[in-house]
Amino acid sequence: SLLYLQEPSNKRVRPLARVTSLANLISPVRNGAVRRFGQTIQSFALRSDSKSPSCTQKSCSRSAAPTPPKRRNSVLWSEMLDVNMKESLSTKEIKRQEAIYEMSRGEQDLIEDLKLARKAYHDPMLKLSIMSEEELNHIFGDLDSYIPLHEDLLASLGEATKPDGTVEQIGPILVKWLPRLHAYKGYCSNQLAAKALLDQKKQDRRVQDFLQRCLESPFSRKLDLWSFLDIPRSRLVKYPLLLKEILRHTPKDHPDIQILEEAISIIQGVLSDINLKKGESECQYYIDKLEYLDEKQKDPRIEGSKALLCHGELKNKNGHKLYVFLFQDILVLTRPVTRNERQAYQVYRQPIPVQELILEDLQDGDVKMGGSFRGAFGNSDKAKNIFRVRFQDPSPGQSHTLQANDVFHKQQWVNCIRTAIAPFQQSAAAAELKELPELSEESEENNPSTPNIKAQKRQSVMSGITEMELDESMSECSSIQDSEEAKGVKTPRTSFGHRKTREKQLSGKRKETLV
């Protein structure tokens, strides 16, 4: 006991205790598996310490801190150079080498995290029967298959590194390697379903306890499981930034200039393809979760959708929460429901095809919201952040006044809907303008002294053409100018003197026909 009292007070054993306390998750029969898992966790902690650039007294003492740091300790490339080498390089070249080293170090960190996700999460949960193999495969996907991919790039960068630590040319390596990132299409497309399953499994007490204990362990760097599973995606979007940084510090006459520009074009194309595939997968994921109360609600445009432009929670005029989906060709309003612990979406009213969709951007206070909504707006009872969607044809009688959480989300919805209906507005406007020459001929045939011109009433909301806009379009033809003047409409092409003469000729003969 005397030796125990004389031990230094800074001795830390708590992180190890946290790891070995995983034994509480299983029956005593599985103690051997827990013991092996504890040893695995310890090996990860020791390995991460040994892989640091230099195990100085400062870094070792930091590992003994009560709260482990979330991020790895990184060393800049320039900090590893001796003074003579540093003086022989220009500032621009040092920054270029820093950017190349950052890419290499990032690959090494990614490989370690992918291996950690497998050994510290997947394998223990499988051995302890916390999740089934099918569930784990659905959540983790083929994560292991990407480790050799990144190891190849890291090895190529290592071979290109000179003894002094510099890399002369990196462009050819990247141009050859970057197209292989298309392999991530499947993994990224499955992320939405994987996240949903993981969130569902977190309701299980054993899963929740296991993940919490891992989160409190030093090896996790205070990152949860999903953060590790999302690391490949976040790495993908960093590649264009890293390449542009290398290109920015590369001299104009360097042979890497054109090759790096080609590499940037390649990675942007890869990301575009991955995003397209991920968007299609997300769209199909939500389509499969739709429930129809009536066969009339089913629309082939829903099943045929390949893109989901916008989706999220809104409230209707009665204060009920709706989950709204704007697919590429149709707007679907739903009510969130739970079926056997799984999220589903019950279609509410009749879906509105985009080509028949009318959008009204309402001002704050234009509509008073009813139902349980009243208390949210105090005494004024005036709603904010609202807009209305409805059918072009009023016969179905469907109109939905919707409210977003804030002005930002309202603007997002308004912009998305406007973008979706814009092609149909343009085609409708073209159809209207196509009829204008016929109107012009009819106007020329009539005697100006006895005009019987009647303004045609049109749906201005859908076509985007008001009566005045139509008159302005007609004024571009000389024959239409006469009819405009007969209606008393001033056109920008008509001079003051000419207008005055025409008014004298028509004085006492015309009738006001504007409606």
How does this structure look, described?
- It is a single chain.
- With 515 residues, this protein is an alpha+beta fold.
- Among the domains are: 74-288, Dbl Homology Domain, Chain A, CATH 1.20.900; 293-370 and 383-427, Pleckstrin-homology domain (PH domain)/Phosphotyrosine-binding domain (PTB) (PH-domain like).
- The chain has helices spanning 2-6, 14-20, 31-50, 57-63, 83-88, 91-127, 133-140, 147-160, 171-177, 185-189, 191-201, 205-216, 225-229, 231-236, 239-248, 256-287, 300-303, 407-434, 436-445, 460-463, 467-474, 478-487, 496-505, and strands spanning 290-291, 308-315, 321-327, 330-339, 342-347, 352-353, 357-361, 386-391, 399-403.
- Strands 1, 2, 3, 4, 5 and 6 form a 6-stranded mixed beta sheet that branches. A 3-stranded antiparallel beta sheet has the order 7-8-9, with helices on one face.
- The protein starts with a helix and ends in a 10-residue tail after the last helix.
Q: In what range is the share of β-strand residues?
A: 5-15%
Give the tally of β-strands: 9
Look at the structure and give the CATH class of one domain: Mainly Alpha
> In the CATH hierarchy, what is the architecture of one domain at level 2?
Up-down Bundle
Terminal residue distance = 103 Å
Under CATH, the topology of one domain is which?
Dbl Homology Domain, Chain A
Low-pLDDT stretches are 1-69, 372-380, 438-515
Helix content: 40-55%
Tally of DSSP helical segments: 23
Keywords: Cytoplasm, Guanine-nucleotide releasing factor
Subcellular location: Cytoplasm
Protein name: ARHG8 protein
Pfam families: RhoGEF, SOS1_NGEF_PH
